[in-house]
Amino acid sequence: MHVLIHCTLLLIFAAATCANADTLEEVTKRGYLRCGVIEGSPGFTSLNDDGERVGFDIDHCKTISAAVFGEIQIEYVPITPHTVFTLLQGGSIDIFPDGATWSFTRDTTLGLDYTGVYFWAGQGFVVRRDSGVKTVADLDGATICVAQGTTLELNLSDYFDTHGMQYTPVTFADADKGLQAYQSDRCDAFTNERASTAGRIAGWPDRDNHVILTEVISKEPMAAMVRQGDPRWRDIALWSFNVQIAAEELGINQGNVDEIRAHTENAEAERLLGLHGDLGEALGLSNDWAYNIIKLVGSYPDLWARNFEPLGLERGLNANWKDGGLHSALPFR
Fold first, then answer.
1. pLDDT single digits (tens) 127-141
2. Known CDD domains for this protein (predicted)?
């Protein structure tokens, strides 16, 4: 789930001793990646019928593992919005791929680093189809369920104050409890990140009786997080995610990567796939690290098709810049 976690200043830089650690060395010696995941959000993190973890965030865990090991070697560590920052600071997890909204306060106070925006989220509302609510303006005077202590709660307050609207918040410890309250008619609307909401309500028996409004009240740049003070590990995370954006721009995907690797004459594709240059060496990785990411996990469109198309989600802001979106690859040279 894309948790828009409010910066509770409970983080007192307890991880100062971990900040200088070489995470790549630790992960390599351990033999597997410790990846923190917030469970129970179809499309992002969930279990399939075979009991396997699947989702966009799970694929990001696999991306880092593919880059480091050339195979999938992961321990998934269940976390909550209230524990993730301290667990990451303290070294109990190596990366939080689900990430959080990249904000000034978080970036400057948590002792953690962001690793590049991989998902552009937007906060929206789900309402009952027969409520007559068509736009956010129609929620003036409404009772709204929201997760407590999150940027969702702050965005809600800011938006309604700015537009001179009234509302009554009903707060809960997490999104699931808020949705349960909405289902029980304790509020007129539930607010959350739109894609996360779509995944969570996809299996409702009465799904057709609910509508996710098309309007959003915020733009939320989501980025994976790592401990501060370990620039090589941050670079590995940033450039591993960037591989999947670059692959899309170069027309490379999980299905054709071997053919392109064998026949491409594109210089950047050759560098990306490890045919020329030593990009992997600069990160402390093998030179086929990016090839392994695409082969084992896929390009950004592969991830989107696998996890979000079944939910009916269009890419929107998450499209490549060539298609009117916000994603643009950093050059591999």
1. 999 999 999 999 999
2. PBP2_BztA
Shared domain for 126 and 249, answered yes or no, is no
Contact between 75 and 33 under an 8 Å Cβ cutoff? The reply is yes
Report the CATH number at residue 207: 3.40.190.10
Tokens coding 155: 């965005």
Q: Is the domain of 94 the same as that of 79?
A: yes
The whole-angstrom separation of Cα 27 and Cα 237 is 13
What are the pLDDT digits (tens) for 179-202?
A: 999 999 999 999 998 888 988 898
Domain boundary residue among 177, 200, 219?
Answer: 219
Residue 186 contacts residue 178 (beta carbons within 8 Å): no
β-strand pairing of 189-193 with 167-172: unpaired
Distance of CA 23 to the CA centre of its chain: 21
What's the confidence (pLDDT) of residue 75? 97
Which range of residues forms the domain containing residue 85?
A: 16-120+221-323
Pair 235, 306 in one domain? yes
Read off the pLDDT of residues 139-166 as tens digits, 9 standing for 90 and up: 999 999 999 888 899 999 999 999 999 9
Question: Are 176 and 227 within one domain?
Answer: no
CA distance 112 to 15: 10
Distance CA 322, CA 36 (A): 32
